[in-house]
Amino acid sequence: MAEFGPSEEAGAEVEIAEPWEGYDRMKAAEIEQRLADASEELVAVVQLYEASGRNRQTVLRAAERRLA
After folding, report:
1. CA 41, 28, 12, 8 torsion-angle sign
2. What is the pTM of this model?
3. pLDDT per residue over 1-57, tens digit each?
């Protein structure tokens, strides 16, 4: 009898582009400075991008503070 169920390989993949050109080459301190004047939408994109990639805590904390 065959078993049917969810495949371990099933699922959506999402690719998140860098928030702005050159982002991946920037240091955390440079990103923090840019977040100070960024829109809430851009800050949220940075937060999502960092959490799914390099996961730099400095950047993530700066984004959280900015969105609070």
Report:
1. negative
2. 0.78
3. 556 666 566 688 888 899 999 999 999 999 999 999 999 999 999 999 999 999 999
The amino acid sitting at 18 is: E
- Token readout for 59 is 């950047």
d(CA 19, CA 43): 9
CA gap 3, 62 in Å, rounded: 48
Q: Which residue do the tokens 């960024």 mark?
A: 38
Phi, psi dihedrals of residue 37, rounded to the nearest 5°: -110, 10
Q: For residue 56, with 0-12 CB atoms within 10 Å meaning exposed, 13-18 middle and 19 or more buried, which class applies?
A: middle
Q: Cα separations (Å) of 66 from 9, 15, 24, 33? A: 37, 24, 20, 11
